[in-house]
Amino acid sequence: MDAPGPPDDLRTQAIAGDTVGLLEGLVTTRAIRRYLPEPVPDRVLRDILFAATRAPSGSNRQPFRFLVLQHGPVAAEVKRLLAGVARSMWSVKAHLDGYDRGSGVTDDSPKARMARTMAEYVAHFEQVPVVILPCMQRYRAPDTSEGASVYPACQNLLLAARGLGYGGVITGFHGAVERELTELLGVPDNAFIASTITLGRPAGHHGPVRRRPLSELVYGDAWGTAPDWAQDPPGTRYTSAGPPRPAS
Amino acid sequence: MDAPGPPDDLRTQAIAGDTVGLLEGLVTTRAIRRYLPEPVPDRVLRDILFAATRAPSGSNRQPFRFLVLQHGPVAAEVKRLLAGVARSMWSVKAHLDGYDRGSGVTDDSPKARMARTMAEYVAHFEQVPVVILPCMQRYRAPDTSEGASVYPACQNLLLAARGLGYGGVITGFHGAVERELTELLGVPDNAFIASTITLGRPAGHHGPVRRRPLSELVYGDAWGTAPDWAQDPPGTRYTSAGPPRPAS
C-alpha cells in the first residue's frame, strides 16, 4: 500500500492497482468486525469512496451521499452514539438468537466465534478506525425499491475495501439514534441514513463466506424450483441452515 | 469462456478464473442494454448467481431469491409483460426528461446516444437473453433499510457478469406488472420483486462510467462539506451535472 501523499496530490494519482481478481473478490469478501488500531490513509479512503460512487443508481441520479467519520470531536460523538446502540442491540440479539447458550458458547463452533467477535466489536466500537454513514437524498416519495439507488454503492464500498487490504461491515446501528445523528451532522430533511458501515484494516482475514446452497436461492420458471445448473462449485461452505459441511 | 458441460458437471467445476481486477471492475462496470443474440451458458449463469448470493445480508439471513428467466413459455410471457411496461415507461420518460428534443436528438451527445440505446432496448425487449427478477422474502415488517439485504446481491450479480464478459442493467420495469408476475411465477405473499435485471453478452463495451465529482458525493464531519481527500483521480468522466469534461 502506498503511503498517502498530501491531499492535493490525489488529483494526479490514479486509483491503486489490483491485487485481487473481480470474481475472487465477490466470493471472498467477508464481514470484517475486528480492526487493527490504525487510521485508514487518505489515499485509501479516496479510492474506496471513488469505487463506491461508481455504482449504478436509477437514471444515474446518484442520490447517495457518504458521511465519512474518522477523528475529531464530531466523529467521536458519532461513534459514542452508535456504540451505545451497538451494545444494546447485541445484548438483546445475543439472548434472542441464543448466542449466550448452547452452540453459542462452544469454543469451536462458528456461532461461538461470531458471539466472541460481536462482543468484542460492540465493546470497543468507539475505537473503530472509520465509520461511514451512507445516506440517500430522496427525489420522490419513499418506496420499496428506493434502496436500489444506495445499497449497490454500499456493496461497491465494501468490495473496494477488500481490494485495498481493508474490510468492513454493514450494520443498522444508526436506526435507534437517527434523530441525534441527523442533527449532529446536518442531514437534510429530504435525506435518510441508509446504513452504518465500519471500516479498517482487518485483524483477521477475508476468505470463503458461508451461505445456503445455491439451489435454495436461485429459481427458474417457478418459485421454489431450481434450474439444473444451480449447483455449488467445489469447496463451497454452508451456513448451518444448509446441508452438513463435508468433513474434508 | 469455457463451453458449458452437462449441468451435473458443475458441482465439480470451480468458478471461472479472473481476467478483470476487483477495483478495475468496480469502476468500469457500465449499464449494458445492448446484447448479442446469444444465450448465456449454464456455467456462466451458475458463476454469476453464485457470486450474487455471496453478498452480505442482515444477520446473514440471505432473504434474496433470484428468478432466472431464459427460454420457454413462462420466460416468454415474463418478457412480454415487461416489454409492454418498458416501452410505456420509456415513452413517458423520453418526453418528460427531454430525450426527444434538444441535446437528446444531437447525434454525438451522451444524451442522444442514451436515447438511441433506450429506444432500441425497449423495442426489442422480448429478445433480451436473460431476465432476472431478484426478490426478497420478508421476515419482518417493511422498512426503509430492508433493501440492504437484497441490492448488494444485485450489484454482485452485475459485477460478476462483467467479470465473465457479460453485462446487464437494473431496471424497475416489474413495478407496473408486479401482480401478473407474482401470479405467473408463484412469488409468495411474504416476498416482493426487488428489481428487473436484464443480462447478456454486450454488443458494446464496458468502460469508465460518468458520475458527479467525488466532492459532491462524499462529506466529512458535516453534510455538504467534502474532506480534502475527496478528489477524483486523473481521467475521471463526469455527468453533465458535473464540471465540464477536460478537452484532453
Q: Any descriptors?
A:
homodimer, disordered C terminus, alpha+beta, 7 helices, 5-stranded antiparallel β-sheet
Structure, described:
The structure is a homodimer of 248-residue chains. Chain A is built from seven helices and eight strands. Chain A has helices spanning 22-28, 42-52, 72-96, 110-123, 151-163, 178-185, 214-217, and strands at 64-69, 130-137, 167-171, 191-193, 196-200, 210-211, 218-219, 237-238. In chain A, 33% of the residues lie in helices and 13% in strands. Chain A has two domains: 21-205, NADH Oxidase (3-Layer(aba) Sandwich); 208-241, no CATH class. With 248 residues, chain A is of the alpha+beta class. In chain A, strands 1, 2, 3, 4 and 5 form a five-stranded antiparallel sheet that branches. A two-stranded parallel ribbon of chain A has the order 6-8. In chain A, helix 2 crosses helix 5 and helix 3 (72-96) runs antiparallel to helix 4. At the A-B interface, helix 1, helix 2, strand 1, helix 3 and helix 5 of A face helix 1, helix 2, strand 1, helix 3 and helix 5 of B.
